[in-house]
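Issue 218. Parser rejects a valid record. Input:
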Amino acid sequence: MMIRRLDPSENPPWELLELADPSKMIIEGYIHNSCIYVGEESDEIIGVYVLKETKKIVVEIMNVAVQEIHQGRGIGKQLISHAINEASKQGYAQVEIGTGNSSIYQLKLYQQCGFRIVGVDFDYFVRSYDEPIYENGLLCRDMIRLSYTFES
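Output the parser choked on:
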């Protein structure tokens, strides 16, 4: 798989972005001042992630998604590793990522990639979304915040 930064003139892969976040309105709130990266195989976009600067030395990974038919092949891990490397190359000191309390597989993946849990935004998904989100048989209520800090 090849990963590249999406040119601003290209249309974002909305179907994938909304796989990671069901609210197009929320995505539109940050997508235009972020960098979108896509993973491609045979000229087809099969994965995506977004990098958004949140503070001068901190960047957040958002909207990590892989087409369902390609899940389970390690593509998500490749996207996260690429994002960490991009953040390092761009001089950031820290990378943050957030996921729902019900996102069991994502929580495992992010910790395997070196992220540590640093906080919980209680009821984030209840406050931010009109419809309840269920995943893995659980109500998605809380945003689990994780962080990766580069060693100096």
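Fixed in the parser; the record now loads. The chain has five helices and nine strands.
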